[in-house]
Amino acid sequence: MTGSGPGARGTIRVVVADDQSVVREGIVMLLGLLPGIEVVGSARDGEEAVALTAELAPDIVLMDLRMPRCDGVEATRRIRAGHPGTEVVILTTYADDDSLFPALQAGARGYLTKDAGGEEIVRSIEDVLAGQAGLAPAVQRRLLERVTAPPPVPAAPAELPDGLTVREGEVLGLVAEGMSNPEISRALHISTATVKTHINNIFGKTGVRDRVQAMRYAYLHGLAQPPHG
């Protein structure tokens, strides 16, 4: 195909996928009025979108996200894996993180919401076919916010019972696993004398009198998992 269509590519062949017939027909009608765009097929769900892509090899699939049988994310993943010559532009009502990021991770190169006008849809399609991202301005802002957001502050470690230190909690957990003092020494790379000091501190803080009681204490406070079976 040759011609002076968008981006000097000639006519851009598009498949439209949307489960709502009124919306799908409206999009097809809109695209039919735009120069350089030819709608070669329409699909009612992701399964049909994948099948039409295999049959027609369109340049672009304009993909809704929430559809029966096979949603837009899974259909995008399958199209990009099996038909790398076809790009996917999402056209959906939703711009939340749970919709946006899985779609982009599946291989979509464009993402628009359904309030986009004809010019914006054409611009997104052209950008994607030129190797760029065809993202709505609101989506670009959301991505920028996500990238520039400060990393989450790690949660403070849970406080151990009876004033036990982190190291004493580690020692107690290994005692509960049935390890001897020399084994604990090797596991934690500390001397056996230090292990004995920790165990004496554990006994004093928790009130246990022997290793059996120490095991029960560790199980009770979630410092070790009791054996199964």
What does this structure look like?
- By secondary structure, this protein is an alpha/beta fold.
- It has helices spanning 21-32, 46-56, 72-82, 97-106, 118-129, 137-148, 166-176, 181-188, 192-206, 211-220; strands at residues 12-17, 37-43, 60-63, 87-92, 110-113, 134-135.
- It is built from ten helices and six strands; from the N terminus they run βαβαβαβαβαβααααα.
- It has a six-stranded parallel β-sheet, sandwiched between helices.
- Helix 2 packs parallel to helix 3 (72-82).
- The longest helix is centred in the last third of the chain and has 15 residues, at 192-206.
- Residues 1-8 have low confidence and may be disordered.
Q: What's the SSE pattern?
A: EHEHEHEHEHEHHHHH
* First and last CA, distance: 70 Å
Main beta sheet, described? 6 strands, parallel
Please tell me how large the radius of gyration is.
30 Å
Q: Strand order of the main beta sheet, please?
A: 2-1-3-4-5-6
Helix and strand content put the structural class at alpha/beta
Helix content: 40-55%
What is the number of strand segments?
6
Number of helices: 10
Strand content: 5-15%
Low-confidence stretches: 1-8
The coarse overall form would be: rod-shaped
> What's the multimeric state?
single chain
pLDDT averaged residue by residue? 87
